[in-house]
Specification:
Length: 286
C-alpha cells in the first residue's frame, strides 16, 4: 500500500490510497442511502486524554455527524465504553439530525438507540466482578500499583499505564500477568493505547459492526478507528467486501498505533481529521 493520505484544512475529499478504499468512497457518494457510517469514540470522535472520564467529543464532531446522518442509511458509534457513557460524553442525545443514531457500547453487548433513548443490554459476565475485586491487590503484589490506575467500565475493567513513570514498560510488564488473571475468570485482555482491558470473550467491534451492517442492509460501510481494539472492525469490513459490501477503512492517525494505519485505506490527522472528513462527505452529498 502507498503512503497514507492525511486530511488537511481543504474541503476537498482526500483520496484513499487503495483501490478498495476508492471503490468504497465512490459507492458511498453514489448511494448514500445504502451506506453506514460507523465510528469509534475515544481517539476517533474524542481526543485521547490522560483521564478517560474527562474525554469529550471534538467540538465539531456532533455538528458534522448531524449534517451527515440524514443523508446516509445510518450512523453508528461502536465503542468499548458503556453505551450510555459514550452518549453522555459525546453529547449525542437529543440532537436534531441524529434522531436515528445508534451507539453499540461494550463492543456490542449494549445498544443505545436515539429513537427511544434507551439502552438494551445482555446480562453481565460474572468474571468481571471477580476480577474487579481481585485487581487492586493483584497490582499491589506485583509492585506495579504506582502510576497505574483502574478504570471501572461496568461490563469490563481496564488498567491504564499512561501516568506511570515509564508507561510503555509498565504496559509490557502487566500484559502477561493480566492475561493470566483474566483467563482464570473466563475473560480476555484487549490491549489498547497504554491500557489493558479485561472483558468477556465472544464480542468485539468486528462482530458488532458486521451484525449491524447486515441488520440495516447496507451496501457500503465507512469505519473509522484509532486503536488495536478497532482491528476486528477493520477485519470485518475486509470480510464484508468479499460479500459485495463496499468498504472504506479510516485510521484516526496516532504515533502510538501503527498497525491500524498500515491496514487503512485512508489516514486522517486524529479526531480533527475525522471531523473534517465527515464534513467533506456531508458537503459533497448536499
Amino acid at each position: 500500500m502507498g503512503d497514507p493520505v492525511y486530511s488537511t484544512s481543504s474541503p476537498e475529499l482526500p483520496e484513499p490510497v487503495t483501490p478498495a478504499g476508492r471503490e468504497g468512497l465512490a459507492a458511498l457518494l453514489a448511494r448514500p442511502g445504502k451506506a453506514v457510517i460507523a465510528l469509534d469514540f475515544d481517539g476517533t470522535l474524542a481526543p485521547i486524554v490522560p483521564d478517560p472520564e474527562q474525554a469529550r467529543a471534538h467540538p465539531d464532531a456532533v455538528p458534522a455527524l448531524a449534517a451527515l446522518a440524514p443523508k446516509v442509511c445510518s450512523v453508528a458509534v461502536v465503542t468499548g465504553r458503556p453505551a450510555g457513557v459514550a452518549v453522555r460524553y459525546g453529547g449525542l442525545a437529543g440532537v436534531p439530525g441524529l434522531e436515528h443514531l445508534v451507539v453499540l457500547g461494550h463492543y456490542g453487548a449494549e445498544r443505545w438507540d436515539a429513537v427511544s433513548s434507551t439502552v438494551h443490554a445482555a446480562e453481565p459476565h460474572p468474571g468481571v466482578a471477580a476480577v474487579r475485586a481481585e485487581l487492586p491487590g493483584f497490582l499491589d503484589t506485583m509492585g506495579a500499583w504506582r502510576g497505574t490506575w483502574i478504570e471501572e467500565k461496568g461490563r469490563a475493567v481496564a488498567v491504564h499505564t499512561r501516568r506511570a513513570a515509564d508507561p510503555q514498560a509498565a504496559f509490557e510488564a502487566l500484559r502477561g500477568p493480566l492475561a493470566e488473571l483474566a483467563s482464570r475468570h473466563g475473560l480476555i485482555v484487549e490491549p489498547g493505547r497504554l491500557v489493558l482491558e479485561l472483558r468477556p470473550p465472544g464480542m468485539d467491534k468486528g462482530v458488532a459492526l458486521a451484525d449491524y451492517v447486515r441488520e440495516v442492509g447496507a451496501e457500503t460501510v465507512l469505519y473509522a478507528g484509532d486503536d488495536l481494539g478497532d482491528l476486528p472492525a477493520f477485519a470485518a469490513v475486509e470480510k464484508l467486501r468479499s460479500d459485495q459490501v463496499r468498504g472504506l477503512l479510516v485510521c484516526s492517525g496516532s504515533a502510538e498505533v501503527a498497525e491500524l494505519a498500515e491496514r487503512a485505506d485512508l489516514v486522517v490527522d486524529g479526531p480533527g481529521g475525522v471531523v473534517e472528513l465527515l464534513g467533506a462527505v456531508a458537503a459533497r452529498l448536499a
